[in-house]
Design goal:
Oligomer: single chain
Helix content: over 70%
Number of helices: 5
Structural class: mainly alpha
CATH architecture of the largest domain: Orthogonal Bundle
Bound molecules: zinc ion
Largest sheet: 2 strands, parallel
CATH topology of the largest domain: Helix Hairpins
Order of helices and strands: HHHHEHE
Number of strands: 2
Strand order of the largest sheet: 1-2
Shape: rod-shaped
Number of domains: 2
């Protein structure tokens, strides 16, 4: 039973190691980080679009204000109210300034719109890519979950068997095994076959067989210190 326990514990250690390296789980993790970096670029791109829209609205408001000023000035200039030549000259000067400003704002709005269009296109591309990757990720996730679930079940079964054996062992013997296992870092029960120690392979004197068969007696290999059990 101690031998069985030892082998079971080895199997459990291997399974636990395998569980940490399940390929589909690793693929899922790396794809998940790709998707989240994609989401980050998407959200920063969306931020750029929002900022562009704000800039556009501001530009349009400026244009409206300038347009209103121009209309007001035109009405005054050609309404016949103002008679002074000097004042008329000043107003014409002001009008041409406003017209220059108007054309500048119009140019600015145009370039904002171009930029915005590019950003919106890029955003929609990123959005599509993100959706595609997300769908792919969900598939990988399902596979990874299935495989992880399976590995967990296997491990749970092994652990159940391990507990079953431990419950059948007498406490002092189990304690001895656990101490020895810790001391020898894992392999501490040796299966003797044809008179050889199963761990260090040393040839054991024939008297060992009888001693191992004596009930209640623990026999250890004089060379490696492992607990000997008969394997044949
Ligand atoms: Zn030995």
């Amino acid at each position: 039973m101690l031998w069985e326990l030892q082998e079971l514990e080895r199997e459990i250690a291997i399974k636990e190691d395998e569980m940490r390296k399940i390929p589909s789980v690793q693929v899922y993790r790396s794809q998940k980080s790709e998707v989240s970096s994609l989401q980050e670029s998407l959200s920063s791109q969306q931020g750029k679009v929002e900022a562009g829209k704000k800039k556009l609205r501001r530009g349009e408001m400026n244009l409206q204000n300038v347009n209103a000023s121009i209309t007001g000035l035109n009405n005054k200039l050609y309404g016949g109210e103002v008679q002074s030549t000097r004042e008329l000259e000043n107003m014409e000067k002001k009008l041409s300034q406003l017209q220059a400003e108007q054309s500048e704002i119009e140019d600015e709005i145009l370039s904002i719109m171009e930029e915005l269009e590019k950003d919106e296109l890029k955003t929609s591309e990123l959005c599509q890519q993100e959706e595609k990757e997300q769908a792919r990720l969900q598939k990988v996730k399902a596979q990874a979950q299935k495989e992880l679930q399976f590995a967990r079940q296997e491990l749970a079964q092994l652990n159940e068997r391990r507990i079953g054996i431990m419950e059948q062992l007498e406490a002092p013997l189990l304690q001895k095994y656990q101490d020895l296992s810790r001391k020898m870092q894992g392999q501490c029960v040796s299966l003797v076959k044809e008179g050889f120690c199963g761990i260090c392979n040393v040839s054991l004197p024939s008297a060992f067989r009888a001693r191992i068969l004596t009930p209640g007696q623990l026999v250890f290999c004089e060379n490696c210190g492992s607990l000997l059990v008969l394997g044949d």
